[in-house]
C-alpha cells in the first residue's frame, strides 16, 4: 500500500534508511558479528573468480559490488549483462562462482545463464529480494535483500539493498580469509542509513533543481569517475526510464573521445564528485563541458564540496558513496517524471520483471 504517498517510487525511495537498518539487523548475530551461512562462506573462499550476472539496475549494483569483492575479499570479479553472457561467454576460470543479482528473481535473461552454468556443473549464489523466486530456487545458495516488496517499475531500494548485501558478503569473505578489513560494514551501513535519511529530507531542493534545470531539456548527461561512474549509469537509466529524457552516463575521462560533440548551449551535465582521488580530474571534465556551453550540476560529498556545487551529500566511507549519491539521482528522476506528467510507477513499454528473453 502507498499510504499517504502519491507514488510507490517515492515511498520506496524513503524506505531506504529502514532497509539499511533491516539488513544490519538480519545479517548480525547476537555478538554483533556478521551472520552468513557457512556454505556461502565456503563457496566464496573456494572460488578463484566470481562472475556476476544481472540486468539493468541490478547490473549497476554488480559493478559497485565488484569493487568490494576485489578490494576487500581479494577475488577477481567479472560483471556481465545477462542477455549477452551466453552468446559472448568469456573464457572461464578453473573454479568459478556465479553470483546472480536480481530484485525479482524472475528475470529470464539471468535465468537462462543460470540454467546453462548449472548444466556445466558450476555453483551459483542468488542475491534477491524474493527468496522463493525461480533464481533463488534454482541456485545453490541465496542471500536475501530484505527490502520488502518493490512495486514501482523503477528500482530504487532494491539497488541500495543489493549494494549493502554485497558489501557484507565481501567483508565476511575477507574475514574468513584473514584479510585486513577496509571497514566494519554494520557500523558504516548505520552511518549510511542516517545519511540517507538526511537526503530524503531534502526533496524540495532536488525538486527545485529539476524545475530550474531539467524542465524542458531533451537530453542530459551524467559524468563521474571510479564508483561515481557506476552511479551515473544508474542515474541515467532512472531518468530515461520514467521521464523519457534521453540520458547517458559516462566516465568523465571518456567524454572528450566523442560524446562531447553532443554538448550544446544549456545541455544539462550532472557530475558526481564523491571520490577524493578523482575529485580534481572530474572537476576538470566539468570545466571542459562548461566551456562548450553545458549547464553543470555538481553533486559532491561533504569534505570535497565547493561553493558552486548544486548539491552536497553527507560524508560516508569512500567505498559506500554509491549508497548515498544514488538517492538524489533517484529523486531527480522522480521529479523530472512528475514535471512531465509521466506515469511514474508504470512507465510506458516496461514491466516490473522482464520474463522474456
Ligand atoms: O528483477 P531484476 O533485478 O532482475 O530486474 C532487472 C532489470 O529488469 C531492472 O533492474 C530494470 O532495469 C529496472 N526497471 C530499472 O529501474
UniProtKB/TrEMBL annotation:
Protein name: Glutamine--fructose-6-phosphate aminotransferase [isomerizing]
Residues of the active site: 352 (for fru-6p isomerization activity)
Catalytic activity, as annotated: D-fructose 6-phosphate + L-glutamine = D-glucosamine 6-phosphate + L-glutamate
Residue ranges of domain SIS in the record: 36-179, 206-347
EC number(s) reported in the record: 2.6.1.16
Keywords from the named record: Aminotransferase, Cytoplasm, Glutamine amidotransferase, Repeat, Transferase
Subunit structure: Homodimer.
Coiled coil regions in record: none
Primary localization class, coarse: cytoplasm
Entry function: Catalyzes the first step in hexosamine metabolism, converting fructose-6P into glucosamine-6P using glutamine as a nitrogen source.
Cellular compartment(s): Cytoplasm
EC class name: transferase
The encoding gene: glmS
Source superkingdom: Bacteria
GO molecular function: glutamine-fructose-6-phosphate transaminase (isomerizing) activity
Amino acid at each position: 500500500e502507498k499510504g499517504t504517498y502519491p507514488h510507490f517510487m517515492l515511498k520506496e525511495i524513503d524506505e531506504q534508511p529502514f532497509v539499511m537498518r533491516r539488513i544490519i539487523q538480519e545479517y548480525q548475530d547476537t555478538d554483533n558479528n556478521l551472520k552468513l551461512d557457512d556454505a556461502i562462506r565456503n563457496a566464496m573462499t573456494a572460488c578463484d573468480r566470481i562472475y556476476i550476472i544481472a540486468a539493468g539496475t541490478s547490473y549497476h549494483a554488480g559493478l559497485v559490488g565488484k569493487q568490494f569483492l576485489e578490494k576487500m575479499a581479494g577475488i577477481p570479479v567479472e560483471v556481465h549483462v545477462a542477455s549477452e553472457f551466453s552468446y559472448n561467454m568469456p573464457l572461464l576460470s578453473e573454479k568459478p562462482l556465479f553470483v546472480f543479482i536480481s530484485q525479482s528473481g524472475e528475470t529470464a535473461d539471468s535465468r537462462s545463464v543460470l540454467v546453462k552454468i548449472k548444466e556445466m556443473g558450476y555453483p551459483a549464489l542468488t542475491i534477491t529480494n524474493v527468496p522463493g523466486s525461480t533464481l533463488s530456487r534454482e541456485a545453490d545458495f541465496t542471500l536475501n535483500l530484505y527490502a520488502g516488496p518493490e512495486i514501482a517499475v523503477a528500482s530504487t531500494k532494491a539497488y541500495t539493498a543489493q549494494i549493502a548485501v554485497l558489501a557484507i558478503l565481501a567483508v565476511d569473505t575477507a574475514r574468513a580469509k584473514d584479510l585486513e578489513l577496509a571497514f566494519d560494514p554494520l557500523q558504516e551501513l548505520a552511518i549510511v542509513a542516517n545519511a540517507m535519511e538526511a537526503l530524503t529530507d531534502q526533496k524540495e531542493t532536488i525538486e527545485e533543481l529539476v524545475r530550474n534545470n531539467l524542465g524542458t531539456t531533451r537530453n542530459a548527461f551524467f559524468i563521474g569517475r571510479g564508483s561515481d561512474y557506476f552511479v551515473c549509469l544508474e542515474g541515467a537509466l532512472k531518468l530515461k526510464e520514467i521521464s523519457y529524457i534521453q540520458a547517458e552516463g559516462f566516465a568523465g575521462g571518456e567524454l572528450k573521445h566523442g560524446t562531447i560533440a553532443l554538448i550544446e548551449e544549456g545541455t544539462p551535465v550532472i557530475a558526481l564528485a564523491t571520490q577524493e582521488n578523482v575529485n580534481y580530474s572530474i572537476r576538470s571534465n566539468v570545466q571542459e563541458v562548461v566551456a562548450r556551453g553545458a549547464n553543470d550540476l555538481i553533486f559532491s560529498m561533504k569534505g570535497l564540496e565547493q561553493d558552486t556545487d548544486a548539491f552536497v551529500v553527507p560524508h560516508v566511507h569512500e567505498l559506500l558513496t554509491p549508497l548515498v549519491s544514488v538517492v538524489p539521482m533517484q529523486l531527480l528522476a522522480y521529479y523530472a517524471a512528475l514535471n512531465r506528467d509521466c506515469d511514474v510507477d508504470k512507465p510506458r513499454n516496461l514491466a516490473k520483471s522482464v520474463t522474456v528473453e
